[in-house]
Design a protein that fits this description.
Shape of chain A: globular
Largest sheet of chain A: 8 strands, mixed
Number of helices of chain A: 13
Largest interface: A-B, 135 and 148 residues
CATH architecture of the largest domain in chain A: 3-Layer(aba) Sandwich
Radius of gyration of chain B: 29 Å
CATH class of the largest domain in chain A: Alpha Beta
Number of strands of chain A: 16
Helix content of chain A: 25-40%
Strand content of chain B: under 5%
Number of domains of chain A: 2
Number of strands of chain B: 6
Strand order of the largest sheet of chain B: 1-2
Structural class of chain B: mainly alpha
Largest sheet of chain B: 2 strands, antiparallel
Strand content of chain A: 15-25%
CATH topology of the largest domain in chain A: Alkaline Phosphatase, subunit A
Oligomer: heterodimer
Distance between the termini of chain B: 27 Å
Structural class of chain A: alpha/beta
Order of helices and strands of chain A: HHEHHEEHEHHEEHHHHEHEEEEEEEHEE
Chain lengths: 480, 773
């Protein structure tokens, strides 16, 4: 069959095979919607990466509200010295601030700083436990992003765009690699606190990718997925018997549609669902963990129990082959009266005191636990936020939003542990060398999963879309 | 086949490598790359040429042909020596046609009437009845709303309610039901305010433009204006032109020769477009209901609101100033400029500030000035005022239940703020609005047409959108009709004649049957852009009437079924699944239009105040298109079934098959309760005989009766299932789910009654129900 090159290129994307073909293509290839029975292949079937993967699982720790990394990792003696003074004009050059008539005075919080580990990384007294894990971490001190408000910057952090509609990073990963465990969703979202994070599902949406790739939010409690529990009056073996009847009914029609793999897949999906009814609660059942493990994550302490529970769940999901685990830090009563997340426009001392306390031990516990179980070299942990906070103060004792320079870190699979990349200026306001944008972070995460961000594409309305939009380069300096 | 696959995927990488080398994201095309110079002289891309009037091809099997569509299809089949399929049986046909036109399964009575209709006009009568029903408009509207990224909330973190948007949804339903000509339909949506000033319906139609996701707290209004215009431009480009012109925002389009200049010239049509969410509407029943509800809330909260207002009044001037100072540098330039110096851009920015600013925004000043000792505004007294304000806000929340979350007394539509001059539009380097280059004027993309816009401004409006709408709706536009008829074809056959329904550019699929596409587009325009005529033509074609049964010969010759020798079976869309389950259970509340409703959601969704299920149980069982589209809380029963995302144009419903879908249908308390209701309904309607009950159940769900062997399986299940039910008994007690809606509890064995419910639930979960064949 002779065809022009043009034909071949476009048919690859759409006409021939659809999902069947996509399944053969590393990283998903150009995927189209299946419309025909004959070509149906499970969209979540595991796919080969572009090159051998360092990481099997990503645990993406989003600190919601934006912590001041100036008060956690980025030690600035000059800021302490200059505290109380006006920001020298040279530092403000080229940034668009959201305050008329100048910004607040430089502000230093009441921190003590120490270096830890072989690497000598600085940690403030807010993170005593994480500091003990210093040598597992690669810091990016020169993170930058866009945006003055949380929601657009959170969208960008997760999807690469300031407007909703693009797939989140986890959705791209799921699309490109499929599922490693059909009994569980391949992409899970966890959150601490009682309520779903505000803004909700756009931050784990599949965007223009098929809905099958979106994140599944795991709810608190022992029934993490919506509709996981049988109707109240239906027993377990009763449902098994119901599903057996259903299978027979479906099979009786197979005669008419013998080649219809989509119909067959739908029949099978009920068996998967039945297995998920058991597998999902088991995955979040912490009663199977030892007391020592629970203590490691801080489950024995009111202040750390909530977030620790979520991270211990994350580890259990990682063990079970979930590809992408997106963890959103929840609000805390103790953080302040109006602002409950990390968004410390005022009273940073109280706010960050509470939040750092809530996450410090659990995150340290997670890193230690992953290592002791031999999981750290296949699990990538990313500590991230929508932006950082300013060196100048706000309301006297808080800090405003800072997209110009802040710290994020990576640890685990494929990461050059104990390194620091980039820096901010003397007062910690702007990145001065090697700025790393969210696109670069995404490209790096994909790289560690064995995916070339430039080749991870999906053909949408004639446009080969990729996770990094038209930007992004791998941050090789933090890779082992 | 396998060898071909490998071959193709290798070439797939060639395509990708191009993209990489050029740092491009738009799909490449060889004409646009290596042969670029040569091709410039060569003929224009097929989709950009005028629609032709192709003659109906000659076919051998003339007696098969019922409409010209069939000749176009049959000619291709005969060329491959493939016979078409036999007609589907009538019961299958009516189920298919009812689902396709109404989005609902037919009743057993409708099926019987059609099957027994001996008139030679039986099909015509059926189709006429289907197209005359308001259910037709409801179904077709849903698909248009996908393109309009319709939602009842603004999205982003605050996800504010948009309580006026349902009027636009109702406009769309009514447009389909009235068979409003498609050209008029799109003109009203893009320029209703300009082409029909003072016409309320046309103003509501512009809701199409104002449906963009928005964050009212954005502090960068110049950026926000650009993002809004981008959304509008890309929405129209994809939905109406089937064009990826949006690709040219950051760089010249790689394959379609849309330049950045083309792109920003297109944006220029919307340069002066603002939104007004408070256009008073003619009051009717809904408005009076809303006002009555609103009045109760206003009365209950009057004192609190007055006290809050007094607190803000004491600092209002300073608070407003402080609030305005929170905007970013370039927004502030507009905000702090005296009114008499306002440019068109300043008007836009200040209008925006005026309608997004709330009293709570101003209250932030109390807090700041009461707290920040460094501030020149510092006033300790304000801290107490802030505490008081906050306390009142908490008190106010107690009355939230009284606050109506449905209905309104306003229209959301577009406005040009009473001015005819537009802000300038520039080409932005790399799509970055902070790097403007040359200024551009409104113009149609040069690769599509040589026509120039004739812009006639009015006293109150630039006239730009009317000019654009006129071109889009013109019979000479090469894309508008083709794109729309292809979408309708895609609806019926699961795949468009052009597979990439929103990309008719060079990177998109080529039409599998270009003559058929042009025939449909041409006759569509000739029929006065009548959408119903288009549907009728397809519904009455022999092509649409074919059986979907597997045919080995067709499968071998055309595994993709591109030639349509077999009718393609299809999984129901999310709304079709839910609505048909409601029909089967007898619980569907049919009422056309009105404010969107909040049916229940699972408790563990933890949506909090974002979703308060409606107290009125009738709201729980309305058709799915009336469910409130909350951008941050997609309705959980629909979401797993590939429902449309409301964030951007949703071009095509995917079909994915996942265990989460199975969990939803088998475990949702709502769906299970519908099965209980269906179980009761069947007993009511069929009487005590189990064999008759099974017949009735199958007639309701599948429009057929079970085969003897199916019946044997089902009866055996009723006999044996009791044993598995008993297993869940605890302490000798057993609670059972029994059929709902039976007047007298019959002397029936309760275990068998519970088994009957489970049987019904399993049958409702089967492939045969959730597909249409």
């Amino acid at each position: 069959m002779r065809q022009s090159r043009r034909d071949l290129m476009f048919k690859t994307g759409f006409a021939f095979g659809g999902l069947a073909l996509a399944a053969h293509l590393p990283g998903g290839g150009l995927l189209a919607t299946p419309t025909l029975a004959a070509t149906y292949v499970d969209p979540l079937a595991p796919k080969e990466p572009h090159f051998p993967a360092k990481a099997k699982t990503v645990i993406w720790l989003h600190m919601d509200g934006a912590p001041s990394t100036l008060d956690l990792y980025d030690y600035k003696p000059d800021l302490v010295k200059l505290a109380g003074q006006e920001v020298p004009a040279s530092f403000l050059k080229g940034i668009k601030t959201s305050t008329q008539g100048g910004v607040g005075k430089l502000f230093a919080s009441n921190r003590t700083w120490k270096q830890y580990g072989q690497s000598g990384a600085w940690f403030s007294d807010l993170l005593p436990n994480l500091a003990q894990q210093a040598d597992k971490i690669a810091f990016i001190r020169s993170s930058v992003t866009i945006g003055a408000t949380h929601d657009i910057s959170i969208l960008k952090l997760n999807t690469g765009d300031l407007s909703p509609g693009r797939p989140s990073l986890g959705a791209w990963v799921t699309y490109a690699l499929g599922s490693a465990n059909p009994d569980l969703p391949a992409y899970v979202v966890l959150y601490s606190g009682k309520k779903e994070p505000t803004g909700g599902s756009v931050n784990w949406s599949s965007g223009f990718l098929p809905a099958v790739y979106q994140g599944t939010a795991f709810r608190p409690g022992n029934s993490p997925i919506l509709h996981l529990d049988r109707p109240e009056l239906v027993g377990l073996s009763q449902q098994r018997d119901d599903l057996d009847l259903l299978r027979r009914l479906n099979e009786s029609r197979d005669v008419v549609y013998p080649e219809d793999t989509e119909l067959q897949a739908r029949s099978r999906s009920y068996d998967l669902a039945y297995r998920m009814e058991a597998a999902a609660p088991d995955a979040v059942d912490l009663s199977k963990e030892s007391e020592a493990t629970k203590a490691l994550y801080g489950l024995n302490d009111e202040a750390t129990r909530d977030y620790g529970t979520v991270l211990l769940r994350a580890r259990r999901l990682a063990e079970r082959g979930v590809r992408f685990i997106q963890v959103v830090s929840g609000p805390l009563e103790a953080a302040g009266e109006d602002v409950r997340n990390w968004d410390a426009h005022q009273d940073l001392e109280k706010n960050h005191g509470a939040h750092a306390r809530a996450v410090d031990k659990p995150i340290a516990g997670l890193l230690a636990d992953l290592q002791s179980r031999g999981l750290l070299d296949q699990t990538l942990v990313v500590w991230t936020s929508e932006f950082g906070r300013t060196s100048y103060g706000q309301s006297g004792n808080g800090r405003d939003h800072n997209p110009w320079g802040y710290t994020q870190w990576l640890a685990g699979a494929g990461i050059k542990a104990g390194t620091t990349l980039g820096s901010t200026d003397e007062i910690g306001l702007k990145a001065v060398d090697r700025p790393v944008d969210t696109y670069d972070l995404h490209a790096t995460v994909l790289q560690l999963l064995g995916l070339d961000h430039l080749k991870t594409t999906y053909l949408k309305a004639g446009r080969a879309e990729r996770p990094t939009v038209v930007y992004g380069s791998v941050v090789n300096e933090v890779l082992a | 086949m396998a060898a071909h696959m490998r071959n193709r995927s290798k070439h797939g990488f060639v395509a990708l490598a191009f993209g990489l080398a050029a740092t491009a994201v738009c799909a490449e095309d060889n004409q646009a790359t290596s042969d670029a110079k040569a091709s410039r002289a060569s003929r224009q891309h097929w989709a950009y040429q005028r629609v032709q009037s192709p003659t109906e091809p000659n076919v051998k099997q003339k007696d098969w042909v019922r409409t010209p569509i069939d000749s176009f299809i049959l000619a291709k089949l005969e060329a491959k020596d493939l016979p078409p399929s036999t007609d589907a049986d009538r019961a299958t046909f009516i189920r298919r046609a009812t689902l396709d036109t109404w989005g609902l399964i037919p009743t057993p009575e409708e099926v019987v009437a059609f099957v027994n209709d001996t008139s030679p006009e039986a099909y015509e009568r059926l189709v006429a009845r289907l197209l005359a029903s308001p259910r037709y408009g409801e179904r077709q509207a849903r698909l248009w709303l996908d393109l309009a990224r319709y939602a009842d909330s603004a999205g982003f973190q605050n996800d504010l309610l948009r309580l006026n948007m349902w009027r636009y949804r109702d406009y769309v339903i009514s447009a389909f039901n009235q068979d409003k000509p498609y050209n008029r339909f799109i003109q009203e949506q893009i320029a209703g305010d300009e082409i029909a000033p003072g016409n309320e319906e046309a103003l509501i139609a512009t809701g199409f433009l104002v449906g963009y996701p928005d964050n009212s707290n954005s502090r960068d209004l110049v950026q926000r204006k650009y993002q809004i215009t981008t959304d509008i431009t890309d929405t129209i480009g994809q939905a109406i032109l089937g064009s990826t012109i949006g690709c040219a925002r950051c760089h010249n389009h790689k394959s379609d020769k849309f330049t950045q200049k083309d792109y920003f010239s297109f944006q220029a049509f919307f340069a002066n477009t603002s939104v007004n969410e408070k256009i008073p509407v003619t009051k009717g029943e809904y408005e009076r209901e809303f006002e009555a509800a609103q009045a109760k809330w206003v009365e209950a909260t009057k004192d609190i609101k007055a006290r809050q207002k007094a607190l803000i009044d004491s600092v209002r001037e300073k608070a407003v100033k402080y609030h305005k100072e929170r905007y970013l540098t370039d927004s502030r330039e507009s905000i702090f400029k005296p009114v008499e110096q306002w440019t068109a851009l300043d008007r836009w920015v200040n209008h925006r500030v005026s309608y997004v600013t709330t009293e709570n925004d101003l209250a932030a000043f109390l807090r700041y000035s009461g707290e920040d000792k460094e501030s020149p505004d510092f006033d300790k007294a304000n801290w107490d005022k802030w505490l008081e304000y906050r306390k009142l806000t908490e008190e106010l929340k107690k009355f939230d239940k009284l606050k109506p979350n449905k209905g309104s007394i306003y229209i959301s539509g577009v406005t040009e703020l009473g001015h005819s001059d537009s802000p300038p539009t520039y080409v932005f380097f790399g799509g970055n609005h902070e790097r403007p280059e040359e200024e551009v004027q409104p113009a149609f993309p040069e690769s599509l047409t040589t026509e120039k816009p004739v812009i006639i401004s009015t006293e109150k409006s630039s006239g730009r959108r009317a000019a654009l709408a006129g071109w889009l709706a013109s019979p000479t536009n090469p894309l508008t009709a083709r794109v729309f008829v292809n979408r309708v074809w895609n609806q019926y056959f699961g795949k468009g004649i052009v597979g990439t329904v929103s990309d008719f550019g060079k990177a998109g699929d080529r039409p599998t049957n270009p003559e058929l596409l042009d025939y449909l587009a041409d006759s569509f325009v000739r029929n006065g852009w009548s959408i119903k005529s288009l549907h009728r033509q397809i519904l009455l074609s022999r092509t649409y009437r074919q059986a979907s049964d597997h045919r080995e010969d067709a499968y071998k010759a055309d595994p993709e079924n591109r030639l349509l020798a077999v009718f393609p079976r299809k999984r129901l869309d999310a709304e079709q699944v839910r609505d048909s389950l409601l029909v089967a259970s007898g619980k569907l509340v049919e009422k056309v239009g009105g404010p969107s409703v909040f049916p229940p959601i699972p408790a563990n969704l933890n949506a909090g105040p974002l979703w308060e299920a409606s107290a009125d149980p009738r709201d729980h069982n309305r058709r799915s298109l009336y469910i409130f589209t909350r951008r941050s809380v997609p309705y959980p029963l629909l979401e797993p079934f590939d429902m449309a995302s409301a964030q951007q144009v949703h071009s095509k419903r995917d079909v994915t098959t996942t265990p989460l879908q199975a969990l939803t249908l088998i475990n949702s308390d709502q769906v299970f309760a519908w099965s209980q209701a269906l179980a009761g309904r069947v007993i009511r309607e069929a009487g005590p005989d189990e064999s008759a009950q099974l017949d009735r159940l199958y007639r309701i769900l599948f429009s057929r009766v079970p085969t003897p062997s199916e019946k044997a399986v089902l009866l055996a299940f009723l006999d044996s299932h009791g044993r598995s039910i008993i297993e869940k008994a605890t302490d000798g007690r057993l609670s059972l789910a029994v059929p709902i809606g039976l007047k007298d509890t019959p002397s029936r064995d309760p275990l068998r009654a519970a088994a009957w419910v489970d049987l019904v639930h399993a049958v409702a979960n089967s492939n045969e129900f959730i597909y249409r064949f």
